[in-house]
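Q: My labmate handed me this sequence with no annotations at all. I'd like to see what the chain might look like in three dimensions before we decide whether it's worth expressing. Could you predict it?
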Amino acid sequence: MIDRTSSRYAGYEPGSPYESACLDVDELHSLHYEQYGTPDGLPVVFLHGGPGGQISVNSARFFNPDVYRVVLFDQRGSGRSTPKNELRNNTSQHLVGDIEKLRIHLRIEKWHLIFGGSWGTTLGLLYTQTHPDRVKSLILRGVTTLRKTELAHSRRGLNGAARVFPDMYDRFVGFLPENERNDVIAGYYNRLTSGDSKIACAAAMEWNRWDLTLTALRRDTETYQKLDDPDWCFTHALLEAHYFHNNAFIEEGQLLANMDKMSDIPGAIVQGRYDLITPPKTAWELHKTWPHSTIHWIEDAGHAATEPGTFSRLVEICDDFAKL
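A: Here is what I predict for the chain of 324 residues:
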């Protein structure tokens, strides 16, 4: 049944996972994964954001547990996957391989649904273009393909989010010495990977403060609470900077250029109209190159999946896609 007791997560009550385990994906990395819902239900894999995010029970609230078999996992280096904060063998191609290894391990012939948010949309598109015969449908929220123009919108210069939050952007870039401010991502990446915990933690704090500032249309008392969690703070900043600094380990414009590989697969795009992290223009460009997609603009939302209009629309679309 749908749980309406929480305004922040107004979705289905997922209950407890019927499986919580680890899967060794190479000689170094082991993935933590969980399964919710119905073991013989429609298989859906949830791709969390970041990079450097992690799953929680709330990740399963979008899906009717009587219909879906919900697979959640922490991506390499994050959450409860091990080793934590490991950058070796940690690229987009490794993550795509992990999704496939998880599918095979769980004896799932084909994903009924790929569900990705933010960075998870990049990963969802890349996986689908690599294994189109293993995907039946997609739901993508807060679309990014991590092109240079998209990263510039939220991280570089005064042509995007910095126009809305000039004071906070000054704090974000002001953390770096003046001679490093032309490439903010590189400046932070160098500090986060410096090996000096004091320097790295200070950089992680400011990186995430800017990130959280942009997350939702309306900020509240909970906006910056995650800054009080040093483990989350460092992991999120480290892995995000790792992927941003390396352009997600994909070619510029690769995902939009390869949409022909998945043109027959249906999908839904959900985009906050005032998203300052993943610019809405990217969602529109994706929709125009994807014949079997629908786009759903949330007029009173920014980037966060927890914003009421976005969350409720995602639940509705998941219900609709269960009928495919």
